[in-house]
Amino acid sequence: MTTEVLVPNLPESVTDATVVSWHKQPGDPVRRGENLVDLETDKVVLEVPALTDGTMGELRKLEGDTVTAGEVLATLAEGAATPPAQPQAAATSAEPPPALSPSVRRAIAETNVDPASVAGTGPDGRITRPDIMRAADGQTKTEQAPVPPPPAISEDGRPEQRVPMTRLRARVAERLLQVQQTAAILTTFNEVDLQAVMDIRSRHKERFEKAHKTRLGFMSFFVKATVDALKRFPVVNASVDDQEIVYHGYFDIGIAVGSPRGLVVPILRDADQLGFAEIEQRITDFGERAQAGSLSYDELSGGTFTISNGGVFGSMLSTPILNPPQSAILGMHNIQQR
Prior knowledge:
Layout: E1 2-6, E2 17-22, E3 29-30, E4 35-40, E5 45-49, E6 54-59, E7 66-67, E8 72-78, H1 102-111, H2 129-140, E9 152-153, E10 159-160, H3 167-182, H4 195-212, H5 219-232, E11 238-241, E12 244-247, E13 253-255, E14 257-259, E15 262-264, E16 267-268, H6 276-292, E17 305-309, E18 329-332
Parallel strand pairs: 13-17, 17-18
Antiparallel strand pairs: 1-8, 2-4, 2-7, 3-6, 4-5, 6-8, 9-10, 11-12, 13-16, 14-15
């Protein structure tokens, strides 16, 4: 029996997606739950798992194609499939446990990390994709860096390289240009004496890390200070909706994070109700999953205010652009001794 592999329902406000990469080709054996293809939207990459065991059939959509919800991506011949014979050398490789999620199994396949050597940090000690990526990073640091491919040659004989822009980067560029054209943006620059924060952090960071299993960074201080300021000045925590100002009675703080696909802004929901440890743990988790491309659409949606920390790149001054429909954004910068 042949079944169709369909584009799943897309997140709200997302109209289409792009086929990024197929993980199975026609004739390949497929197990239920295995990821067949990655679909990229404006914010997240969606995995499309197999709903049954079988053999991969015809690919109806190719990498780079734009698809909408319900479209047929491929066909799948149901039934137990006999995997092709493997070389003798591959017989010693361990099969990922069936309890692992599709994204974790995919990470194992991409990195060749032995899951038995990885300590899981998820619920009940389960292995997560960031666990695999951290283990892989530890391996690659001991290996020689790969030689990049030679650049292409332009018409005038000079080297250049063209790389397709991800949907995320294109969407970020579109939104930032749009807000510059539709909002009156004013940037103010202020210096703050952080000596007291530095002293508190130095005094408590070792005990904090032992107690909460996470480092005490500066972002938790910045988030706490931001929430306090927003409580004092509610209009900064508001958004504009046509001819109305919407005052939010909650504090959902976006944290701008760089990722291989572009800038993402995961949301700290109800940040006013979070302690320092919870803030640090969630920001660390956001950063790891941004690198792994495993943030969900819900985690990237909404937000009443955004913090961007250019200081991690050594930046001293910048003019961060609003994240619409928010009214303001805070740009943190490099900390210097004076």
